[in-house]
Amino acid sequence: MIYTITFNPSLDYIMHVDCFEEGETNRSKQEEIYPGGKGFNVSTILSRLNLETTALGFVAGFTGEEIVKELTPSGRWKSAHAQSGNSDVCFFSPHEVTNAAAISR
After folding, report:
1. Which residues are CB-contacts of 73 (< 8 A; sequence separation ≥ 6)?
2. Alpha helices (H) in the chain, listed in sequence order
């Protein structure tokens, strides 16, 4: 069993757009939401390699509830320490035309 801990978890929100234009309204053609944070990412890869892993971490608010909800069905999530406030949401938009990416937090 490999235990991982994430001290600063987030929801990684990925928006796919045809062409990102800074300062303009950009419409996404697809969105994906994943629990993020180094420990969660390591547990995800370990479980894909069929290794037994348990993710531990600190979560807060409605974003923390979503992180737990996303990780629980996979069996990777075991314990959370609730904090006040909200866990982070990280927005990521890969540019399909230029292969560049825009990231904000």
Report:
1. none
2. 38-48, 61-71
For residue 68, the tally of other CB atoms under 10 A from its CB is 18
**Which of 50, 32, 44 lies closest to 6, judged by CA?**
44
Give the CA distances from residue 7 to residues 3, 30, 44, 50, 91, in Å, rounded to whole numbers and listed in that order.
13, 29, 16, 24, 19
Instruction: Put the strands of the sheet holding 10-16 in their side by side order.
Output: 30-36, 10-16, 88-94, 101-104
Q: Give CA 36 to chain center in angstroms.
A: 3
Q: What is the pLDDT of residues 20-59, one digit of tens each?
A: 778 888 888 888 888 888 988 898 889 889 998 888 888 8
Would you say the pTM of this structure is higher than 0.90? Answer: no
